[in-house]
Amino acid sequence: MKFYAARQAIFNRRLNVVAYELFYRESESNTFPVGVDPHVATSRLISRTHFNNGFKQYCSGKPALVNFSESSLLSQIPHSLPRDQIVIEILEDVTPSDRVLQEVRELFRAGYKIALDDFVYRTEWNRFLQLARLIKFDIQRTPLASIKPLIENIKKQFPKTRILAEKVETKEEYEQAKALGFDFFQGYFFCKPEMLEGTDAQARHAVLLATYNLVLREEFDLNKVAELYKHDVSLTYKLLRFINSGLFPIVSPISSVHQALRYIGTEETRKFVLMLFTAEELNSKPRELINMAILRAKFCEEVAEKHRSGLGDQAFLVGLFSFIENIMDRPMEEVLEQIALDPVLKDILMQQPDTKGSPLTIILNTAKYYEKGSWHHSGMEAKKLNLNYDDLAGAYQTAIKLVDRYNQIDREPLR
Known about the structure:
elongated, disordered C terminus
């Protein structure tokens, strides 16, 4: 489905763009939608931008400023994001409590940059000032003349902290803010928020709900999560984007969903699932397209295991991602560049000449021929795997049963 967001440039004193603030949008209307909870808005914004194409694409390689509500902070959503690509904006209505302070300290120690948004000074915020690297003043809400002593005091006590004037609407306001010593500027005088449009790989609501129920338990089985993820190409894609976001040192290529989840561990999996569950809605892609992707993936897995034990996980990913162009509405090469998938599997999906004799290529070709009803060609491919037509028929029946079972999830209450 299409998604919308907006970005607004942030300028330094030389009027060079140094960062962008990202805003959640629900339609082509360039305004924040009425009635949307800020926590939900942030989760959706991250899911639809960062876990699809990455902040760098939407921010031209510059840092992204993203608003975080109290719920988002305490849910530890920022920890799921690359610290070198984001600035954590703490919304003005966040309560400066001990619990929030503890979370902000953890983010600061982990290397994240903290910004205080729409800052209005109160003594309760004193202990946060030493952690902030950016303080934003809404100069329409707080007149410049009234904050001059505060700016001077902040610059004296916290020389590393930078000050940003937002909602600068005239040249006069810009000149006044610059004279007061502001470091950065943002507002309609420079540019309005620029609309962004993209394609979101949305997950099936029922599968997300099932994984959500699993990870809410104090102890949960990663293997059960993997089994659910294996049957939703969008979840698998976003998982690999998450791993490839820069948070984790990639020491070996990812060749299965189980390996991907073991790689990040239970706590990161929990946070990832909780954020996606908050963000996602029912998939707008035709159900039949998702069914076809799952059917092909399971068929490939069954054929692979009949050919050689242990090859099934890789074959499943190849089958699943062979539909990614249709689901993401983007070229295969562009999608594969952004995920931490095993290079061998990427080459197979890109149909590179040197993969022609690979068992995984033969398995994928077998699946495609079988789906078309080309019995002769699928049988010829099967012979290369030392399999016969009955083996293929059995694998396909198993795959159909699995698709039926997962469609049943949408019709039955999950426990």
